[in-house]
Amino acid sequence: MGNYLKQNNSQMPACGHTAGVQPPEPAASLKPITTSEFHALRDLVYQRFGINLTDQKQSLVTSRLQAMLQSQGFASFADYYRYLLEDRTNQGLDELINRISTNFSYFYRESTHFDFFTKLALPQLLKELRRKGSNDIRIWTAGCSTGEEPYMLIMLMMEVMGLEYGQWNAGCLATDISERVLSIAGEGVYPEDRVSRVPPPLRHKYFKPGGVGLVKVHERVREEITLRRFNLMNTEFPFKKPFHMIFCRNVMIYFDKPTRDALIRRFHQITEAGGYLFIGHSETISRDQGMYKYVMPACYQRL
Q: Are 73 and 177 contained in the same domain?
């Protein structure tokens, strides 16, 4: 499994909370959110996470937060906002992003990318690395959610490389802003319907029973993933070397155009020449940005 991070880096901690400012005791009632309170929360989320919450999201944000706020004793959303600003550990912000972000995924999602990965991108990379005398494969899933994507990539690499897999410094870096989904990814246990699109031979080979209605990813696959919490809004990416492939799928749909453009520039800086960037099929990159060329829907190659 690859070692991706620069030494003494504080931007990518492993999962885990730090004790911080405590919210108040439970309150009897919570005042309805006002427009100004929503705008304050919206601006804070945008500044810290790049997520663009439009006015149409006010009711969604309210429904996802109000029970938590009342149980933790906040009398108003204004009190909650002040708590977020005063909490130096960012534990409150961690909980906020866990509540408002949508993290739904399944194995073999947008399968054309995985077909391209196994039939062209990975064989092409292996051939080039052999020519250079290198065994270092660097792949990053940015916004990995509950882990289905990076686990799928490891399974496919094991299939393509066969008995040679152990001779490569492979693995996959998987990051997300939400500690909750990273915890799920670390367990590697999923409802059976999440693996329904995985070809049966792969299901039998890389999963085992995980309980009633559940399956669990085999340890040999789980140990190939490096899970880290990471905010894509960091202005600098703390990686030792550029990546051969970056998967950032169905993440940028939450960002506005300036945020997307800035993120693409940061991705470009840490993509190997000729490396690939995969995004969601509902997302696009301008053809005239001069950093990546279009290969196929939602797949681009670094110029």
A: no
Question: What angle (nearest 5°) sits at the alpha carbon of residue 86, between those of residues 84 and 91?
Answer: 50
What pLDDT is attached to residue 93?
Answer: 85
- Looking at the 3D structure of the chain, how many domains does it have? 2
What per-residue confidence (pLDDT) applies to 115? 96
pTM: 0.82
Query: pLDDT tens, 101-144?
Result: 766 688 999 999 999 999 999 999 999 999 999 999 999 999 99
65's CB contacts (< 8 A; 6+ apart) are 77, 80, 96, 99, 100
Percent composition of the chain: helix, strand, coil (DSSP 3-state, to 5): 45, 20, 40
How far is the C-alpha of 271 from the C-alpha of 262, rounded, in Å? 15
Cα torsion through 3, 230, 256, 140, rounded to 10? 20
Q: Which two tokens stand for residue 83?
A: 């708590």
Report in angstroms the alpha-carbon separations of 161 from 137, 153, 185, 217, 260.
12, 12, 24, 19, 34
Q: How far apart are CA 160 and CA 156, in angstroms?
A: 6
Largest pairwise CA distance in the chain:
68
CATH classification at residue 82: 1.10.155.10
pLDDT class of 15 with cuts at 50, 70, 90: very low
Burial class (CB in 10 A: 0-12, 13-18, 19+), 8: exposed
Q: Rounded distance, CA 25 to CA 20, Å?
A: 15
Tell me the CATH number at 133.
3.40.50.150
Residue 244 is assigned to a structural domain of this protein: yes
Q: What is the CA radius of gyration of the chain?
A: 21
Find out whether 190 and 103 touch, Cβ atoms under 8 Å.
no
Token pair belonging to 98: 């866990």
- Structural domain for 80, as ranges: 35-86
Question: How far is 263 from 177, CA to CA, in rounded Å?
Answer: 15
Beta bridge partners of 116: none
Asked whether the predicted pLDDT for residue 19 surpasses 50, the reply is no
